[in-house]
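DM from R.C. (forwarded with permission)

"hey, sorry to bug you on a friday — could you get me a structure for this? deadline for the figure draft is monday and I only need the backbone to look sensible"
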Amino acid sequence: MLGTRFAQALVYAHELHQNQVRKGTSIPYISHLMAVSALALEHGANEDQAIAALLHDSLEDAPQYSGRSRQVIEREIAAQFGTHVLHMILNCTDTHGEGQKTDWWQRKKAYLQHLEAVDEAVLLIANADKLHNAQCIWRDYQQLGEALWARFTAGKEGTLWYYQNLAELFNRRRPSPLARDLQTVVNWLTDAATP
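My reply, with the result:
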């Protein structure tokens, strides 16, 4: 069962992301964090993993939206939720330092390589994150069509390449219904977006 630490993490996630919305929408960002945590729980996450799922974007995005530095957020997470939770979050992020983002292609290739070495707990959270993102991309693609790709730094080609590689990696490293669900959504996107 989830205890008070999970409730505390939900409040903390809201604090960090309350001024953030989903890319190209007015949807509060917290909806993504709750969905990722729910997917992780539905696929076997324990409380630490569920908390890490709620906070998986805290180091990457929250410095920009919360006014807190990445170092402060790292210290707060370790103090409130433990170093194991912080370790999972650090392994789910693809930025370093104060959240500076390097070239998109370099960052995504490095993240895919990084996922080859992480443990099962991190793979579960990362898979839940990417599945929810892919589901949202698919939903928005059905409404916006090809115009959707303008939202993404790497456009259609890069975004599809990234999600195809993620789906392959999760299905190889951690075969599961969650990995298969990601592959299904990626296949829908690829088929719909390929003339």
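R.C.: lifesaver. The chain has one domain: 4-193.
me: no worries. Residues 4-193 form a domain with the Hypothetical protein af1432 fold (CATH 1.10.3210.10).
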